[in-house]
């Protein structure tokens, strides 16, 4: 019994019984050459900490995937199952490791000081360990762009939702780092939960394991964005009301920059809209079948959402398809002009010469 007392057990200060940060710091020091406790994010000095650097990475991403799709158009898809499994496995491990480190840092802060302190005070949500984790999470967003590279090489369709979401997430993480937003840990930790589940699913699917809970990944993503927006809108309201409208009810002040607040609200709102549309387009098709009579209001509602659903599911068109569409449009306009001109008597009929006998 005495030996059992010496076994570490979970506490609020040590949610996993053992302290993970010292172990992480040892590995970080070996790789980076200095302690994680000495990390400082400095815009313009830290790697990928400027808008031109981030924009260059994203432009390179989009040029690569669309040029790659053209390159692969008349080629056989690559068999990359082994590499794809490795890719998804290490992203699962990275996401799980970061999530555990975030939990270890946040549980004591939230328990001792409350949720408002953790999301709106730099002493709660912008400590040196958290900023280090924010930055490492930001770097993983570029690593995750390889998801699309695999899709291109395997000749999978590139949807608007996928290509937009991957690029916008890297940009979102950049804006929140530059904007010093203490609430960043909320969407980041929830996103890490989703990624642990999602990349583990892709790893198992690549192994040939059939998993029944695929649709729950999209549901989990939608739940994530709803919670994200609740916190982000609350933090933004707190900041703007305390700064510009002090007569409005508020809980106090909230740390962060205005451009980061608008970027967070805008990008996360677009995610929620697109993922809900994707879910209904993918998993609710069977519910729209059948002979049930639709009311006028229901038909109008479906029409109002169809464009968003189509956009979320739509494949990004390639160059040839765009050129074909332009040619069809030009032919249609030419035909329409000729038809209208003939009706008005303003078009000179074409003169044909008969062949000599």
UniProtKB/TrEMBL annotation:
Ranges annotated as spanning the membrane: 47-68, 80-103, 184-202, 222-240, 260-283
Keyword Membrane included in the entry's annotation: yes
Record membrane topology: Multi-pass membrane protein
Record localization: Membrane
Top enzyme category: transferase
Catalytic reaction equation(s): an acyl-CoA + malonyl-CoA + H(+) = a 3-oxoacyl-CoA + CO2 + CoA; a very-long-chain acyl-CoA + malonyl-CoA + H(+) = a very-long-chain 3-oxoacyl-CoA + CO2 + CoA
Keywords annotated in UniProt: Fatty acid biosynthesis, Fatty acid metabolism, Lipid biosynthesis, Lipid metabolism, Membrane, Transferase, Transmembrane, Transmembrane helix
Pfam families (UniProt xref): ELO
PANTHER family for the chain: ELONGATION OF FATTY ACIDS PROTEIN 1-RELATED, FATTY ACID ACYL TRANSFERASE-RELATED
Family recorded in the similarity comment: Belongs to the ELO family.
Name of this chain's protein: Elongation of fatty acids protein
Source organism phylogeny: Eukaryota, Fungi, Dikarya, Ascomycota, Pezizomycotina
């Amino acid at each position: 019994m005495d030996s059992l007392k010496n076994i570490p057990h979970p506490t609020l200060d040590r949610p996993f019984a053992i302290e993970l940060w010292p172990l992480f710091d040892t590995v970080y020091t070996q790789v980076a050459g200095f302690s994680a406790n000495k990390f400082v994010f400095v815009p313009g000095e830290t790697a990928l900490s400027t808008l031109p650097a981030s924009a260059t990475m994203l432009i390179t991403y989009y040029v690569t995937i669309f040029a790659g799709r053209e390159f692969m158009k008349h080629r056989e898809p690559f068999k990359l199952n082994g590499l794809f499994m490795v890719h998804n496995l290490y992203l699962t491990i990275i996401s799980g490791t970061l999530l555990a480190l975030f939990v270890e840092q946040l549980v004591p802060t939230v328990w001792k000081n409350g949720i408002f302190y953790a999301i709106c005070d730099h002493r709660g949500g912008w400590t040196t360990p958290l900023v280090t984790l924010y930055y490492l999470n930001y770097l993983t967003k570029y690593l995750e762009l390889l998801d699309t590279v695999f899709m291109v090489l395997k000749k999978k369709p590139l949807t608007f939702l996928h290509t937009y979401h991957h690029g916008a997430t890297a940009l979102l993480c950049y804006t929140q780092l530059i904007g010093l937003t203490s609430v960043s840990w909320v969407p980041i930790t929830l996103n890490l939960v989703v990624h642990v589940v999602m990349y583990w699913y892709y790893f198992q699917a690549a192994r040939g394991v059939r998993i029944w809970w695929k649709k729950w990944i999209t549901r989990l993503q939608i739940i994530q964005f709803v919670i994200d927006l609740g916190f982000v809108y609350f933090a933004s309201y707190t900041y703007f009301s305390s700064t510009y409208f002090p007569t409005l009810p508020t809980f106090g002040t909230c740390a962060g920059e205005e451009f980061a607040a608008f970027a967070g609200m805008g990008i996360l709102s677009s995610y929620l809209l697109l993922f809900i549309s994707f879910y209904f387009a993918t998993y609710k098709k069977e519910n729209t079948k059948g002979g049930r009579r639709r009311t006028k209001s229901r038909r109008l509602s479906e029409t109002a959402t169809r464009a968003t659903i189509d956009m979320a599911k739509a494949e990004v068109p390639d160059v040839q398809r765009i050129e074909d569409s332009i040619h069809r449009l030009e032919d249609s306009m030419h035909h329409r002009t000729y038809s209208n001109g003939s009706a008005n008597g303003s078009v000179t009929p074409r003169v044909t010469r008969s062949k000599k006998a």
